[in-house]
Specification:
Helix 2 (about 10-30) runs antiparallel to helix 3 and helix 4 packs across helix 5. A hairpin with a 4-residue loop joins strand 1 (about 40) and strand 2 (about 45-50). Strands 3-5-4 form a three-stranded antiparallel β-sheet. Strands 1-2 form a two-stranded antiparallel sheet. It is built from six helices and five strands. It has about 150 residues and is mainly alpha-helical.
Length: about 150
């Protein structure tokens, strides 16, 4: 994690520029319909296409910089180790391995090492969140029917 040592808070000038840029970009993003809009760099007059998702990510980066937060972008690997996946889910590695062995998350084995796709881990996390929300709603309805919860 050598990159993390080099992360610094943006300077006041960077914060100010980021804040102004964020406001301008956010206003423009609402009107963009093209999935790969063409943008122009004013200084060089060079035009090129950029994915709309990248522009939206740039807006988030500018917002955080404008708020004075340090920024780091880390690409997410297509495949993850069990340790990285467990950290992403917020559980222990042994618990994560148990989920794999129970067939709750697909994985491949390379030698003795298990590898999981980020997409599969993310889908599992979304599924668990949905199930938790459904259970909370179910509990609230049960409490209302029992008269324990005033609505």
């Amino acid at each position: 994690m050598e990159e993390l040592k080099n992360i610094k808070r943006p300077s006041k000038e960077e914060q100010s520029t980021a804040f102004e840029s964020y406001n301008a970009l956010e206003a423009v993003l609402k009107d963009i319909k093209d999935k790969s809009p063409e943008i122009e760099i004013e200084e060089t007059r060079e035009k090129f296409r950029i994915p709309l998702k990248a522009l939206k990510l740039l807006a988030k980066i500018l917002k955080a910089m404008g708020d004075g937060k340090p920024i780091s972008i880390v690409p997410i690997a297509a495949e993850m180790t069990t340790q990285a996946a467990a950290e992403f889910l917020g559980c222990s590695r042994p618990h994560f391995v148990k989920l794999l062995e129970e067939g709750k998350i697909p994985f491949t084995k390379i030698g003795k090492h298990r590898r999981v796709k980020f997409e599969d881990v993310s889908n599992y996390k979304d599924q668990m969140k949905k199930e938790q929300e459904d259970l909370i709603i179910q509990m609230m309805k049960s409490d209302e029917e029992s008269g324990l919860y005033d609505s």
